[in-house]
Amino acid sequence: MAKKRILYPAIFYLGIAVVFLPGCVYLTHFKEVMFVKSLEANQKEMQAELDKKDKLYVKLRADIDNLRLDRLAQKHGIFHRYGEPVLCRPAELPGGMNETCIYRKPAGGLLTEIILLNFDIQGRLLSWQIQGPGK
What we know:
This protein is of the alpha+beta class. 53% of the residues lie in helices and 21% in strands.
């Protein structure tokens, strides 16, 4: 009988410790837990932005494939419709080409296809090229 009396209080205190100690651990690592939660929220925002940019790239590629991309369209109109390009660089080539803008899949890595849009000095679309694996 003496063993049972000693065992019940030990089980009782062990139960209380199991219930309350995780809360102490949470409080001691509160900053780290909040940092991880903020990273999770940022990751969701980044994924939503990647999905949006991917849809715009697919739309641009579909318009090129279906010959719906209007030649002589204005640069700002293209940027509004398909989003900002990854890079625009000056190009002094024959035919009046003044600038080349590059679009690519946002999560495609280095070996993804790219779309080059060539603009004249007035900002009108002159031509486009598709380079890379999917052309």
